[in-house]
Amino acid sequence: MKKRTVSNDEIADTLDHVADLLEIDEEYRRRVEQGRLKKIAPKRFNPQGEAWLPIIRTRRQGWDFTVLFSNTALAHQRGKTHDWVVIYYEKDGRQQQCTVVTAERGKPAGRRVVRGRERECRQYYGV
């Protein structure tokens, strides 16, 4: 079966709210702090081959989630490799991903927001 990527609008209709993504982000970061996650050795930006990148796999509402810190060039350049959290999720062959970051400006500054869904996050926080 060929997998297809769905739009944020379709995901928003299926997942109850950004609250689901923010809750998964919070769980991931909490478990990282507790040292309770398996660590993998990413191939990119890891010349020593060190297993430093915590990863979690979980299932909620029929969706399979894989969550880890961003390991992109931009995340490394901005020093955000332990702030930007990438969430991959899949259900019935439909795949999507999002990135959750700490907002640096505006009304949600200092709060976690799902990139591309900032408006929903502002409504969630009531700001």
Average pLDDT number: 88
- Principal-axes geometry comes out as globular
Number of helices: 4
User: How many distinct folded domains?
Assistant: 1
Helix content: 25-40%
H/E element sequence = EHHEEEHEEEH
- The CA-CA distance between the termini, in Å, is 42 Å
**What is the alpha-carbon Rg in Å?**
15 Å
Number of strands: 7
- Uncertain segments are none
* Structural class determined from secondary elements: alpha+beta
- Biggest sheet, open or closed, and with what strands and sense? 7 strands, mixed
Beta strand %: 25-35%
Q: What does this 3D model show about the protein?
A:
- This protein is of the alpha+beta class and 127 residues long.
- A hairpin with a 2-residue loop joins strand 3 (53-60) and strand 4 (63-69).
- It is globular and about 45 Å long.
- The protein has one domain (4-101).
- The chain has four helices and seven strands; from the N terminus they run βααβββαβββα.
- 28% of the residues lie in helices and 31% in strands.
- Strands 1, 2, 3, 4, 5, 6 and 7 form a seven-stranded mixed β-sheet that branches.
Produce a short descriptive summary.
By secondary structure, the protein is of the alpha+beta class. The chain contains four helices and seven strands; from the N terminus they run βααβββαβββα. Strands 1, 2, 3, 4, 5, 6 and 7 form a seven-stranded mixed beta sheet that branches.
